[in-house]
Amino acid sequence: MMKLKKYIMRYFILTIIILASYISHAQLSITGKVTDKSNGQPLIGVNVIVDEINIGAVTNIDGNYILDNIPKGELIIKFSYIGFKTSYEKVFISDKAILLNVALNILVIEGQEVVITGNFTSTQHDNTVKINTINSKEISQSLAPSLIETIAEVPGVDFISKGPGIGTPVIRGLSLSNILFLNNGVPLQNYQFSANHPYMIDDNGVDRIEIIKGPASLIYGSGAIGGVINLISEPIAKEGTIEGDANIKYIGNTSEIEANIGIKGKENGIFWGFRGGIVTNKDYIQGDGNFAPNTRFNRNNLKATAGIIRQRISSKILYQYNDDKLGLAVEPALAIVTTNNRNNEVWYQSLKNHLVILQNKLFLNNIKFDLDLAYQNNNRQLYGSEFTPVFKLVDMTLQTFSYRLKSTYCINENAKIILGIQGMFQNNKNGEAPDHVMPDANLWETSAYGLAQYNFGERIILEAGLRYSYNYINVPLQEKSGHDHKKDLLSDEDHIEFNGNFSNLSMSLGSTINVNEHLLFRLNVASAFRNPNIAELTQDGLHGTRYEVGNPNLVTQQSTEVDIGMHLHTTHTSFDISAFYNNVENYIYIAPTSDTTSDGNIIYMYKQTPSVLYGGEAQIHLHPHPIHCLHIKSSYSYVIGKQKSGEYLPFIPAQRLKFEIRTTKDNLSIFRNLYFMGGIEIVLPQNQPSEFEKPSPGYNLVNIGFGTNIKFNNQLILLNFNISNLLNAQYIDHLSTLRTLNILDMGRSFNMKISIPFAVIN
Fold first, then answer.
1. Is 176 found in the same domain as 50?
2. What backbone phi and psi angles, to 5 degrees, belong to 276?
């Protein structure tokens, strides 16, 4: 034992020496000059930033800049300046300082950007998978009642709704456990097997949202069979500053009041930040003028971050707390809720979530290590009314610890690989409430993966990867929550127990072909998987107002998708089109049976069937020359989901067409970045429902809005205003779970947001 300790100590000391030798290696730098491409004049005050290591500089009076203490390997340098198109330059740092001169173009249509949700951190043109992004400016201008509705503005993305407070995203016809929702790269664990369990998210402090449509299980694991949505927090403060912002939003239809304030700072590489907010809503008003009973919701949130950045290492800890109270528009509540107010009194969910994330990056020559650790504690309580046997019907706590270790090795300027391990441990525990939506259970998950990317010159990028995953689920012997307590003796049928494991291989092969600097094609083939979750395997009890039964015989759901896309980008035009075909073996879904409980509740059971989903999206952005103030956007999305037996799948969105015209003006008196917009959304009839759904008629929505930045002396005020559903259309979307109650979707709404940035130390 003493010898073992001695060897371990020697190994530890040797590791420290090696790390110290790397860190003390000769310092490298990037220098250069930034000019206006149209006239060659130097640009003063251009922000030059390496996002991945949070190192930045600003050009001087001659347009020159210098970035010191740069690690070896591949980096992406961002050059941003108001009125000019942001430029992203990829460089490979070896043993020499680099001279990098950049000429910026006047901004017409924003071009590619850096994304981190794909397999490799890279620009859009270097990705073999198309990643849609929504930035903070677009989030502010959307003025939607929830962040899920903002995300659904992306073609191919929709959402299942039980009112504005409860929504879950749908990507190309797949939803719930078939997609992963990430918070800064960490999968949220929020009982996502049900459309009644929304993700506990908000737009406060969100810098951007990145969306992958299609299988992404290779890098993220089980559950990413349909796609990934990743929320990325706001950047840290600039060195030597303390800054913040205050925001207030009003949604007229629900009388929503949302307020939040944030402050952050950085000094000598040590940074910190805090943000807190509240949201309160009444029941929403339908298109016919009636309120939708018990769709009210209230939220409180708190966020904090702290960390340190050095030349070769950065470490950051994030903490987020959400406290949501969400009214449920269910049949028992309709007769009780007779007035429209904000208080959650009957038939509501009380959700509390704590999330702690520790993110570490280490740069050692051509190798970058990422170590992410996360802990989540999610408590879900369901309250009924005085007419239910007990007031608190459900009380569950889901605890999840997850980890990810990833190493990225840049072999040379053309080749790089990723090797990683990932896993989690999860425990579900029921409290004293009688209804156990999920039994007490434990889950272990571990996986290993590898990816490689090679650039054949500047024209062709090839990427391939493989992943192995292993899951073990343990449900110890326990009483079913739905058994008849009037019995004197319990039989085997009144108990539940499960022990099982699932293992799987997944793969991906993708390529990007750059025909020229304006045109590229993408082709991807991916085999992804999803293990049945605890609810699908073992659930047995009342869930809300229906009785749901799991199926212990379920097997892994396997998907093979082919995805092809084209991207065209010129000075005045941007055009994207993609098509996909997704073959899903053992597709898992829940459906009503012909049986009922003794209380008359219909029994729903989980089943499997081979299925296919196919369709595509198209999007165009025109900036007609020489009308520089005009922008025209249009998009179209289409998806079909069918069982191979011929029946259609549930929760498949209808075809959507969107048109938007926007005019902009950079400066007008005290107004900056002024815009006016008008748009129409055309939703076609959904006449291909599943056997348990009804067809849905189409509808049209008209929206208008404007916004500007107002500058008084040195204070900037950001104002956005819009009117959604201007014509007060009366409709029910096909993905609304309120259809069975004949509750219409939201009517006309006047919405506004005011943001005030401020600096304490600048």
1. no
2. -140, 155
Dist CA 396 CA 475 (whole Å)? 15
DSSP structural state of residue 283: P
Asked if 300 contacts 278 with a C-beta cutoff of 8 angstroms, the reply is: yes
Determine the straight-line distance between the first and last CA of the chain, rounded to whole angstroms.
57
Q: Do the beta carbons of residue 365 and residue 93 sit within 8 Å? A: no
What is the CB neighbour count within 10 angstroms for residue 32?
20
Beta-bridge partners for 451: 418, 465
pLDDT at residue 665, rounded to an integer:
83
Residue 380: which residues within 8 A CB-CB, separation 6 or more? Answer: 191, 197, 349, 350, 351, 394, 395, 396, 397, 398, 437
Domain coverage including residue 604: 142-761
Identify the bridge partners of residue 707 per DSSP, sorted by sequence position.
675, 720
**Domain stop point among 107, 125, 153:** 107
**Where residue 737 sits, what CATH number does that domain have?**
2.40.170.20
Strands 55-58 and 64-70: unpaired
Out of 84, 107, 130, a domain closes at 107
Q: Identify whether residues 649 and 738 lie together within a single domain.
A: yes
Q: Which of 742, 752, 619, 702 is nearest to 288 (CA)?
A: 742
Closest CA relative to residue 302, chosen from 272, 244, 260, 333: 260
Assess whether 188 and 96 both reside in one domain: no
Q: Which two tokens stand for residue 401?
A: 């610890």
Phi-psi region of 401 (alpha: psi -120 to 50; beta: other; left: phi over 0): beta
316-328 mean pLDDT = 94
Contact 381, 395 (CB under 8 A): yes
Q: Which of 511, 508, 521 lies closest to 214, judged by CA? A: 508
Residues 592 and 673 in one domain: yes
Write the pLDDT tens digit of every residue in 63-103. 888 887 677 677 788 888 877 777 878 787 777 778 888 88
Contacts of 383 (CB under 8 A, 6+ apart): 344, 346, 347, 348, 349, 350, 391, 392, 393
C-alpha pair distances (Å), 619 with each of 103, 200, 574, 577, 700:
29, 30, 8, 6, 19
- Report the DSSP pairing between strands 157-161 and 87-93: unpaired
Cα dihedral 289/291/292/296 (nearest 10): 140
Look at residue 343 and tell me whether its pLDDT is greater than 70.
yes
Structure tokens at 157: 């993305």
CA distance 111 to 85: 7
Tell me: do 152 and 291 sit in the same domain: yes
Provide the pLDDT confidence category of residue 724 given band limits of 50, 70 and 90. very high
Instruction: Answer yes or no: do 223 and 303 share one domain.
Output: yes
